[in-house]
Amino acid sequence: MPGAGELGCLLIHGLTGSPAEMTPVAERLAGRHPLWVTRVAGHDTTPADLAQTSWRDWYHSAEAGLEALLTVRPRVVVIGLSMGALLAMRLAIEQTTEVAGLVLLSPAMEVRRISWWLRTPIELAATLDERVPLARQLLAKVAFPKRGSDIADPDVRRTHPGYRRVPLRALFNLSRLQEAAAAHARVITQPTLVMHAVQDHTCPVAAARTMYETLPSTRKRLILLEDSFHVITVDRERARVLDEIDAFVTERATETIKSST
User: Fold this and answer.
1) Could you tell me which of 177, 170, 169 has the C-alpha nearest to residue 59?
2) Nearest Cα to 156, choosing from 237, 40, 38?
3) What are 210-243's pLDDT values in tens digits?
4) Ranges of each domain in the chain
5) Contact 221, 208 (CB under 8 A)
């Protein structure tokens, strides 16, 4: 999406979600900044498609968006929701100069819905998935129904798109991303805005706090939301979320203009 601003903006949705999660952000920034709204591999089709992908495929989707924006602007702010926030963190490490700032929305540093007694079986299955082709084919058929809702607003919840089942292989790959993100957080120096809901039933706010405290960036801000669940871009406090994102991107763009004059 074309725009006149000095910075591009890359928008990345969450696991089992769709670009619709990031549409309000795109609408707020539209025309003022070049935008790329990523459809992450395996999403917005069927859970079976998602089960055939890996975290590397998801990362390539985000990387393709960054590369497209860099053809029109030299620097980009990456705005990621949940799993998209983890992909944004990886981009910040691998493209340090090009990524001017990060907005991490409900970062999926941990998943509350994976019970402790499931973790060892899931890790064992992940090992089989990586080493035994036949096991990979069988595990791709396993999926779990999502429990509860990621959205507090009942009107939005009724119509919001997204998968109702989570493939087991997607959980393996999310786990790999989480391990990498924990390491990335220790070296990210770009300005970073983190927003998370205290009532997030999917990804605990405590994990986001820990990640935030780990960030060495000297320009970082943590905002906690009181009346939303996980998908904060469309939930009850979406107006505040959009205002904060807008202000953060504007500040990064102003810094870019000053540094180029």
Assistant:
1) 177
2) 237
3) 999 999 999 999 999 999 999 999 999 999 999 9
4) 8-112+149-162+181-260
5) no
**Euclidean distance between the first and final Cα of the chain, in Å?**
26
Give the tokens for residue 122.
């899931």
pTM for this entry: 0.91
* Contacts of residue 179, Cβ cutoff 8 Å, sequence gap at least 6: none
Fold of 8-112+149-162+181-260: Rossmann fold (3.40.50)
Q: Which residue has the tokens 């009107």?
A: 155
d(CA 198, CA 201): 9
Is there a contact between 86 and 183 (Cβ–Cβ < 8 Å)?
A: no
Q: What span, in angstroms and rounded, lies between the C-alpha atoms of 256 and 139? A: 47
**99-105 vs 76-81, strand pairing mode:** parallel
For residue 183, what are the contacts with CB-CB under 8 A and spacing of at least 6? none
Q: How far is CA 154 from CA 149, 160, 229, in A?
A: 10, 10, 11
